Amino acid sequence: MTQAMSRTPQGNDADKSSAIVREEFIPGSFALRDAWFPIAHAPHVSASPIRRLIHSQPYYLWREGAKAVAAEFHPLQIQANKARASEFTGGSAFYPVLERYGYVWVWYGNPQNADEALMPDIPYLPRQGAKLSANKWGQIYFNCSYELASENLLDLVHADYLHANFVGNEENETDEVTVESTSETVTMIRTVTGRTIPPALRRLGIPCDKADYSAVAHVHLRSGAIVLYGKFTPGFSQPLFHPLIPESKHLCRNNYTFNITDAPFVARNLFPLFSYGIGPQDDQMMSQQNPLYQAERGRRDVSSRFDAAGSRYRMILAKLIRRQQEGDFSYQSDADPGKDISGVLGCERAD
Amino acid sequence: MPASELWWPVCHSEDVSTTKPLGIQLGSERYALYRDDKNVVRAVEDRCPHRRAPLSLGRITAQGEIQCGYHGWTFNGESGELCGFPNLAPGERIPQCSVDTFVAAERLGLVYLWTGKTAANRATMPEQPYSVHGREFHGSVIHPMSHEEVIAGLLDAPGLFLNYLGAYFTDKPQGDPRLENGLLVVERAARWNLVGEKALHMGPLRHRADFPLLFRTHTALVTGETTAQMLDARSEQLMAEILIAARPCARNMTALNWRVVFNPEAHGKLAPLYKLWIARGKSPVSMSAQVDTRALAQVLPGPAEDWRAQSGQLARNTHPDNRIANLVAIG
């Protein structure tokens, strides 16, 4: 007998965690269902199977010809294990799979509810995929739950301190954060004027000491798919697709793609490598935060106006959890994950 | 007397002989173990009721009884009753007295003691996925750490406790821990380490997308008895199965009795190297005699928290007043 512990709606501790989630933010305590996850970059999926996880659920990925396949078991063991296939594949052992935007996407939830229209829109990546050079996409692990990493992206103020050497410090002339949301998404829009440009960015082609900066982070709560778009004026844009695959309450996987098109050649190719500097800086903080959020109960966080997006995220997450605990996995009328968000981000579509 | 309703793995089968009693400490209790004339393991309180000398310092008689080394008082290991002592006159009455006895059982090369107040039930032993089907090695180490912290360390940082030739244990748990048949199952990404550990922390290797190996442990609640396997991508076990029995002993230290069996049909990159080691009588996998405590102190809480919580719950559900259970009842 296998017993899931405290994460899924069917888990023994579901009732207990539901009560806790209503009162406080406990990342990693609940696995939201019925969403598409960009589980792997398309080039990582080949004839040789790889194993990935979503909320501890195993996904074996491989190609049969050009077609990507996802199953609960290794392809050589499917027949032997088919009787053990779970509700996530409807007993078939195979998950719904789509290949879009340069990723293999899989469905986590009831396979009968898998609908391509529910896939997030990523306007700056070609929908049918594009051959991007290897320096523009990659992977970073965060030793924390995906909810904490999502909050990190909604709170770009932290970048002024933690990543000042990469993206500039807090010495801005003005700094405004606005938040929009639906029942499934939170969008943080940050507008900064007179931002100090650090030497690293000046060398990459932003030709001034100060520039204006705008950044939008569009977060899909169920899947952890985060569509980021930043722009320095004068300077170049940073379209960053930053999905956070929730592997466990201790680990999430960021399969990122940086598709900069309007920067000089050097910046276009070097700026994406900042991820390998910025990611570990974030991980250094989040890996320490994670156990405190999971172990401590009854302590409230203090927030400022710059945390409005994170607070909204927690509120909508709690509502989503509550609905799913009550058995409602549907998307509400205001939620349209596949909606064109190029206008929200202020970017042009790639196709 | 430990009263937890559990089977505690206390030593290797090889450690218990028909010639010399073995004294072991489990928590705050001491036991003398030996084999009787039928080769059955007997366990008695390690304290002669005559003058409190440890029976483990005594000897085993030809009739399979344990005899105190101080004055020769002799006890039946099954019933605990005094059988006699030297210099009694013929027909002289033997004082009515006995030592406490405990049910012992052997399995997987280990000796288990039932520390419960209720009747021992062998069916309640956790079903560990370990079987001897190849060359087996065994050994023991003692760590100057509490039983709870040793098990927690083993779950959160196995690389600090195991010498696993050519393997690198990542800090990446593969999914959340789960309970299977009363055992906590924890999985962790691992890879062969052919370039040195420092190199694995640098550059592209640090951001590797997929790992070829999965290190899976099954850990019993409270006792922490653990089996471990290294699996390949097909979830097939590679080369070695490990069995680890942790025993809380004196001065808050923990004895680890480990066994490892190597699959003669093993495949994989390092199989030839492993076979070479084994042919030379060396075990490619063993428990570390010393733990890098500086590194361990920096390990973040991970799957071990689930083990603590579940163990605490089990301990409370059995005997909340019991001293051994309380050693680990943190959850």
Shape of chain A from CA axes?
globular
Q: What is the CATH class designation of the largest domain in chain A? A: Alpha Beta
User: In the CATH classification, which architecture of the largest domain in chain A applies?
Assistant: Alpha-Beta Complex
The count of helical stretches of chain B stands at 7
What is the CA-based Rg of chain B, rounded? 22 Å
Shape of chain B: elongated
| CATH domain class of the largest domain in chain B | Alpha Beta
Mean pLDDT of chain A: 89
Outline the low-pLDDT stretches of chain B: 319-331
Strand tally of chain B is 21
Helix-residue proportion of chain A: 10-25%
Write the layout of secondary structure elements.
The complex is a heterodimer of chains A (351) and B (331).
Chain A: E1 2-3, H1 14-23, E2 35-41, E3 50-54, E4 57-64, E5 67-71, H2 78-81, E6 97-100, E7 103-108, E8 137-142, H3 146-154, H4 159-162, H5 164-167, E9 174-181, E10 185-196, H6 199-203, E11 210-220, E12 226-233, E13 237-241, E14 244-248, E15 251-258, H7 265-270, H8 275-295, H9 308-325, H10 342-345
Antiparallel strand pairs in A: 2-7, 3-4, 4-5, 6-7, 8-15, 9-10, 10-11, 11-12, 12-13, 13-15, 14-15
Chain B: E1 7-12, E2 22-26, E3 29-35, E4 41-45, E5 59-60, E6 66-67, E7 74-75, E8 82-84, E9 101-102, E10 104-107, E11 110-114, E12 135-143, H1 147-156, E13 162-164, E14 167-173, E15 178-180, E16 183-192, H2 197-200, H3 203-206, E17 213-220, E18 226-231, E19 237-249, E20 253-262, H4 271-279, E21 285-287, H5 293-297, H6 304-318, H7 323-328
Helix pairs in contact in B: 1-6
Description:
The complex is a heterodimer of chains A (351) and B (331). By secondary structure, chain A is of the alpha+beta class. Chain A is 24% helix and 28% strand. Chain A has two domains: 99 residues, Rieske Iron-sulfur Protein; 210 residues, Naphthalene 1,2-dioxygenase Alpha Subunit, Chain A, domain 1 (Alpha-Beta Complex), CATH 3.90.380.10. In chain A, strands 8, 9, 10, 11, 12, 13, 14 and 15 form an eight-stranded antiparallel beta sheet that branches. A three-stranded antiparallel beta sheet of chain A has the order 2-7-6, with no helix packed on it. In chain A, strand 4 and strand 5 form a beta hairpin. In chain A, helix 1 runs antiparallel to helix 9. The radius of gyration of chain A is 20 Å and the shape is globular. About 4% of the residues of chain A have low confidence. Chain B is α+β, with helices and mostly antiparallel strands and 331 residues long. Helix content of chain B is 16%, strand content 35%. Chain B is elongated and about 85 Å long. The two termini of chain B are 23 Å apart. At the A-B interface, strand 1, strand 3, strand 8 and helix 8 of A face strand 14, strand 15 and helix 6 of B. Strand 1 of chain A pairs antiparallel with strand 15 of chain B, so a sheet runs across the interface.
